[in-house]
Write a structure and sequence with these properties.
The complex is a heterodimer of chains A (about 110) and B (about 900).
Chain A: H1 21-44, H2 61-88, H3 96-105
Helix pairs in contact in A: 1-2
Chain B: H1 2-30, H2 40-46, H3 53-66, H4 72-82, H5 88-97, H6 103-110, H7 115-150, H8 157-179, H9 190-219, H10 222-231, H11 241-257, H12 259-267, H13 274-291, H14 293-303, H15 313-320, H16 324-366, H17 376-402, H18 406-409, H19 411-419, H20 422-431, H21 437-459, H22 468-473, H23 494-516, H24 521-531, H25 550-561, H26 563-576, H27 588-602, H28 604-615, H29 622-697, H30 703-735, E1 742-746, H31 747-757, E2 767-770, E3 778-782, H32 783-800, E4 807-815, E5 818-825, H33 832-835, H34 856-866, E6 870-873, E7 881-887
Parallel strand pairs in B: 2-4
Antiparallel strand pairs in B: 1-3, 4-5, 5-7, 6-7
Helix pairs in contact in B: 1-9, 2-9, 2-13, 3-14, 3-16, 4-11, 4-13, 6-7, 7-8, 7-16, 7-17, 7-19, 8-16, 8-17, 9-13, 9-14, 9-16, 10-14, 11-12, 11-19, 12-16, 14-15, 15-16, 16-17, 16-28, 19-21, 21-23, 25-26, 27-28, 29-30, 30-34, 31-32, 32-34
The chains are: A mainly alpha (about 110), B mainly alpha (about 900).
Chain lengths: ~110, ~900
Amino acid sequence: MNTAPNGDDPDGPPNRLFLERRGYIQRRVIDGAKLLPIIGLVLFMVPLIWPRRGDSDAVITSSSSIYIFMIWLGLIVFGAFLANRITASGAVQDSKSQMNAASDTTGKSGQD
Amino acid sequence: MGQINLLVLVSLGYVLVLFIVAFAAERAARAGRIKWLRAPLIYTLSLSIYCTAWTFYGAVGFASRSGLEFVTIYLGPSLVMLGWWWIVRRLVRIGRNQRITSIADLISSRFGKSNLLAVGLTILAVVGTTPYIALQLQSVTQSYAVFAETSQSGLDQTDQATIAFWVAIGLGLFTILFGTRKLDVNERHDGVVMAIAVEAIVKLIALLAVGIFVVWGVAGGVAPMMEKINASDIGTWNVSGGRWAGLTFLSAAAFLCLPRMFHVMVVENADERHLRMASWAFPAYLMLMSLFVLPIAVTGLDLLPTGANPDMFVLTIPLSQGQNGLAMLSFLGGFSSATSMVIVAAIALSIMVSNHIVMPLWLHYSGSGLSVSGDVRYVVLLARRVSIGAVVMLAYFYFRLSGGGAALAAIGLVSFAGVAQVLPVMLGGIFWRGATRIGALGGLTVGFLIWGYSLFLPSLGEGVVYSQSFMEHGPFGLSWLAPQALFAIKGLDPILHCLLWSMLLNTTVFCLLSLVSFPQPLERLQGAQFVNVFEHGSSTRSWSSNVAQSEDLMVMAQRIIGAREAQSLFRREAEKQGISGLVPEPTPEFLDVLERELAGSVGAATAHAMVAPIVGGAAVSVDDLLAVADERAQLMVYSNKLETQSEELQRTAKQLRRANEKLTQLSVQKDGFLSQISHELRTPMTSIRSFSEILRDSADMPPADKARFAGIIHSETLRLTRLLDDLLDLSVLEAGRVSLNVSQKSLREILDTSIIGMGLGAETGFEIQRQRSREDILLRTDVDRLAQVFINVISNARKYCDAAAPCLKIHVFQSNEQVTVDFIDNGSVIDAGMRDVIFEKFSRVGENEAGGAGLGLSICREIMIRLGGEIFYLPGQGGSAFRVQFPRDMAQE
């Protein structure tokens, strides 16, 4: 079976139950890109439960700054990594025409 | 005044550089060198107009009042960009597919190209943005004032107003020059984008420079800085959870909904792939912008007298340390933050005003469609230029009226909360097909009313609109309606209070009204295109009739997008339809393309309104939608059919291949048959000829010999006759020309006749075992032919059975209407290889002299086929066994 380019298109109709390795990894990278802001939101909302000024052990600003900026940096690094992985196979390209062509050629064998 | 003069000079020089950059970029774009102009980095930097002067100067002030809380303003946009796959990517794709020109255009286009929505959003955008532009003017004048103070000359009110005026004029001119140069079908302004990219770098460098100076120049390193921070008033965590979460949400919402952000993010986006870089690079930019905010704030609190304005720390710290150069750089950073915001905001607003307010009005008064005269492009451009001037001047007057006090400084978050009201409708519009125009109108109205009532009007200052008692006790003494204590819940932070109630009620009303109202066809069509933007690029048609005249459309299109562009568009479309020349058929597809192109210049609602009268107002109806759906369904049925057909074809091909193989085999068989038959005929003929020659030539032959030879000749003749009879029989049978003589007889009688006819009895040494009781079946078939088969099979058994005491068992079964007769002998088994060929002509088992031409079983098989039954070899019975199967009543077959 030829490696159809529609394996890379995450928005293509879910006409294929299983993908070859490249397409599979591409989907997981996109899953990561979707998950990243949610993880970021949760981590950034951690300060909601920090003890505040007036409590006995209020968080000092240097610690809180380091926490916020480290998470920020981590998110940026992961974001860059994921964005480049998506770049590598050109998933955002408008591959509709390719997809149509591919689904023609792999129409039968693509089902399994 | 020397310092001030220098400052003015530097500002003018900076503006000149911006002009040159923008001009060079425009020229490069015209020359086709757009590759590096539209690079992902430029796109990322252009997003930085999010960081206005309010964030450049104000973030430090914010931080010196409430510590790390300022960072929420950057966290929201960071999360939005990191989550680009969810929303921003979708917005950009929709923006490109639908030729969206502004956020008002997006909402209007989504909800049935409603002009009411577009006008409402435009007015609200102007209301929300004008104070924000005023804020930028204020920050520029304030920064001048800071410098003036240090040069001991001061800056009075009139001077400030003059500066604000000239800044406004300058920015207005710049924006008009580069923002309305041409009416681009894609609304891209390479010059402006390039200029704001440069400004992005300037403000980043400025802030980083001040930060580095503060940390390493003043505090003496990171560790001492950290100690200083911890020892300061903002040394411990003191952010209310509500504000932390609420402001993060608010900044994220504003990032998506601010008209200027929408403009650079969606409208100016040249390539969807740029998002990949922006997704992480823009958060990185924001992080760098906020990295030194806290150190600067703490240093300012430490070094400067207690009364100093923390909003100006970025400027006052370098000045107090005698770092005039650094102060100048910092001033330029703030200046560029302010100018880039004003420029883009003015462009975004002018597009909205001209597309959604001026053009509809102009169309209304000058007649629409064909009766439009002159080049509409000039009208649009003029409208934009005037609106840019108006917006900037409006901001200037707002600045003058508000007096440029602290009231203005608070407008940042107030403005954010206002534009955030668009968020539910926008997200609903791009993710939920069920969102309707009524719902959107209701939600936006409720949201903006609450925002205006509980946040915007109070923010103007006590006594301006509301009296103190009104604020406390509400209208008419209804305390549960008090502007900042709605539903009698007091004590909330005003921003949070407004955000909570406005977003809650906005979303609720939007959803409820959407659920109970029924959308118009155009809304449903647009809804499907927006929500399913990634699924099928093929647009569903929004025009159904083709009474339009292509020439009329051409006339109109030329006036809006220009003669050359219109002609090339028409030629392209004509080519697509296979028509040579300039005039395509006014098919619905073509109308759709045309309308979208026009929408790129004047907005969806206006474009729709312009095409409609020419087309005869026959836009899409529910029936058309259903017809489209049917078409889709038919297409699917058709493709399914194709699939079955191709499967059928494959099956047929397989059958044909098999048939071909068989035919080849048959041809080989036929050749073999011919050579066989000549051989079979020749053998008896040879012996007849030689014996008749002997008889003829030897006259004195003893009579005994004569009789013997004559006997041989006779028997050979008989053999020949039998062979010829068989051949004749077989050919008649094979050709299917045999006429069957159907009669009734019991199976037992037929078997009896067959066995007796062969002259077989117990004394011959060939035993036949039968189950007579089971043979009592009345058959209705060609009795004689059946007997012929039986005789053949039995005589074969007799001929070939090589057992010492040969014995043939005849078993009879009947199931349903089928009769089965098995003939099983106790001789040796026929080789597996031979079993396939024994039914072929001239095939004989072994070189047996028993005679027979090997046609018997072939004839049997042909007969059985004619009788509707079959004969085959039955393996695994201990001897040679044949099974004969046929219907009991032939007539019923």
